[in-house]
Amino acid sequence: MKTKRSKIAVTVAALATAGAISFYTLSPDSFNLERSSTQTFRTEQVTIGNVSNRVSATGSLTAVNDVVVGAQLSGQIIKIHADFNDTVEEGQLLAEIDPEYFAAKVAQAQALRDKSTADIEAQKLVIERAKLNYQRSVRELSRSRTLYNNKSISEDALDEIETNSKLSKLDWEQSASQLAILKATNDANEASLKQAQIDLDRTRIVAPISGFVINRTVEAGQTVASSYNTPELFTLAKDLSEMEIEAFIDESDIGLVKLDQGVQFSVDAYPERQFNGKVSQIRKAPQDNSGVISYIVIVSARNADNSLLPGMTANLDISIESIRDAQRVSNAAVRAASRYAPSNQQKGGRGDFLSRFEHLNLTNDQKTELKKAMPTASPGQGGQSNTAMRQQRQQMQKVLSSILTAEQRELQRRIRNGEVKVGPLLVLKNGELEVIQAEFGVSDDSYSSVLSPDISGMQIVTQVRDN
């Protein structure tokens, strides 16, 4: 049976999906597709459901407040006082390094300190003697001058007595200076003693925090060397009620990740269980692995039942944005519409320029006002300077701001910010193909949410095939 040219001949083929998807054979001339042969179209019903855009990654679980306990000295471990999973208190003894050598160093430093202290006391006596000698020489000089005035001694004898007095003064001053040197030596010996005592104390490895032992890497009798790197002996965790995941995010996805975004993850130990967390840190240092750049994102998660353990591999889905109970179409429908939807734009003319605002659903009055403000040549055509084009865009923006409603301005803002995308959809309505402009929201790997218009119950074209 023949139909009018404006109608589309439809052949329905039942599928195994109980009518959810249908096939139609159409004459392409009826909707201005530039095809010369009959084509088969696949359609689907609009569904209601959740759409969630996620970034997937893997990472390793670590305790939030874990501390690596190391040895600051080289020596032999003679005793181990803590084992795996032991609960320890801050300051509790975990292990001991053989203290014999360090105790000898303390004794040696103490002996040097005691000697320098005794030298100081002896020098004080020397100073006192030099002082008395000087005072005696001063008195003798005074008497000698009286005798010289009375012609009782010669001038040479007086000169010798004056010289002896000056030498006595120099001896006194030199003794005082020597005391300062001995005090400095004593201070150095005191510091050496303190350092030796610190080293002796460090032979006792103690817990820096209260918690429990999650790892021990040393055995009694083992020798540790701290010449270059601090040997790691124990790893302590304050508790496991809070865990962190170090996730590696590809550079193509890192721009989507924001602080406090929700995260769902699973571990191989509990494959059927979903754990929740949130993004707590985005590190800016790049990680280069054979030319592949990624960034570390820290995810915080509660672990109230201690089921998560350090070192477990987590498979994460970071929730970028989501919408619940939304009308949605498959991404195949979006791709099909973008490829096959007819274009009614008049390139280079005013129709082409006005079509840029088709998504705003302008009223006739708004279109009239916009046409009045339009330049003779549309922005971007040849023969116009950059300054003129910029002025035209600014003028058009002012006109738009004055004629748009609050809802239209909000839609334009959301489109500009990437919150909403506008594009076509192909629908079959009463046996005819129609192209509608839709506002798309959140998209994932399978679906795109449709914010407007209401397309519930419509048959959406998802595929076009040549017969």
Automatic annotation (TrEMBL):
Residue ranges annotated for the Multidrug resistance protein MdtA-like barrel-sandwich hybrid domain, each copy included: 66-231
The name this protein goes by in its record: Uncharacterized protein
Record bears the keyword Mitochondrion: no
Domain YknX-like beta-barrel: 243-318
GO cellular component: efflux pump complex
Top-level lineage group: Bacteria
Signal peptide: 1-22
InterPro entries in alphabetical order: Beta-barrel_YknX, MdtA-like_BSH, RND_pump_MFP
Gene3D superfamilies xref list: 2.40.30.170, 2.40.50.100
Similarity field: Belongs to the membrane fusion protein (MFP) (TC 8.A.1) family.
One Gene Ontology molecular-function label: efflux transmembrane transporter activity
Alphabetized Pfam families for the sequence: Beta-barrel_YknX (PF25990), BSH_RND (PF25917)
Biased composition (Polar residues): 384-398
Keyword Signal among UniProt keywords: yes
Keywords noted in UniProt: Signal
Region (Disordered): 373-398
